[in-house]
Amino acid sequence: MSIDNNMVDKKVILRFTSELVEQPIVYQLVKEFNLVPNIIRAEVSPEKKGYLLLGLSGTEANYRRALICLQQQGLQVQSLVEQVSWDEHLCTQCGLCTGVCPSGALYLERPSLEVRFEGEKCVVCNMCIEACPAHAMRLDV
User: 14, exposed or middle or buried, with CB in 10 Å at 0-12, 13-18, 19+?
Assistant: First the structure.
């Protein structure tokens, strides 16, 4: 099996202008490129500019073709190859990171109120890294 037929699961941020906001981008990824999208986060401003953070699953070849096509349409495409990790031995359980985490990857487990981290939910916004006084959060490249 060649590398182009390998299955991938990657995160990507698509930034779009007001001219592209009404385009069926997610539908196109499914229909034309046979990718399975997971919308992690999306935001559209009143000026109709915005971004879409997606998890995409499919073959490497289809993933590459899709990103090229999106760029040709005028979308700004950023692959997320970075990953945030949590060192629970350094963590002081203060919970500051949970208050700034937009995806819910960091949360306080109830009833113990212990900090927990689910890396697959992380959107690599780096807000937890800035908030953590114990430096228990780090960016892995």
Answer: buried
What pLDDT is attached to residue 141?
Answer: 62
Q: What CATH number is attached to the domain comprising 121?
A: 3.30.70.20
Instruction: Name the residue range of residue 119's domain.
Output: 83-140
User: DSSP letter at 32?
Assistant: T
At residue 4, the pLDDT reads: 59
- pTM, rounded to two decimals: 0.59
Percent of the chain at pLDDT > 70 equals 95
* Count of the separate structural domains present in the chain: 2
- DSSP letters along 98-139, please? HHH-SSSSEEEETTTTEEEE-GGG-----HHHHH-TT--EEE
Structural domain ending residue among the three candidates 60, 79, 98: 79
Q: Which SS3 state, helix, strand or coil, does residue 58 take?
A: strand
